[in-house]
Design goal:
By secondary structure, the chain is an alpha+beta fold. The chain has two helices and four strands; from the N terminus they run ααββββ.
Length: 94
């Protein structure tokens, strides 16, 4: 990936800007993300954006809120690639 693209991506990591620039392919936000929690607890959500379709490169952003359910902060950032995984599910025989 070129440095120019990396600088463009990292220039503004707000969710609204990322959604305008890149395709949001996955988002995982717990139900209590914006709710008040026990002291010292935090909630984390993950957003994955497609940043380079040709190279199949994605940006994984991890954000967290404090125990009051506000003060969102960026706690993780990484460039990732997709990987298909086979899952076996066991079901009752009818």
């Amino acid at each position: 990936m070129e440095l120019k693209l990396i600088n463009e991506i990292l220039s503004d990591l707000s969710a609204s800007t990322l959604r305008k620039k890149f395709n949001l392919v996955e988002s995982n936000e717990p139900r209590n993300y914006w709710s008040e929690k026990n002291q010292g607890e935090e909630s984390k959500k993950v957003e994955i954006y497609e940043v380079d379709k040709k190279a199949k490169t994605f940006l994984r952003i991890e954000r967290a809120t404090d125990s009051y359910g506000d003060n969102e902060s960026l706690v993780g950032l990484s460039f990732v690639t997709s990987k298909e995984v086979k899952v076996t599910a066991f079901q009752p025989i009818n």
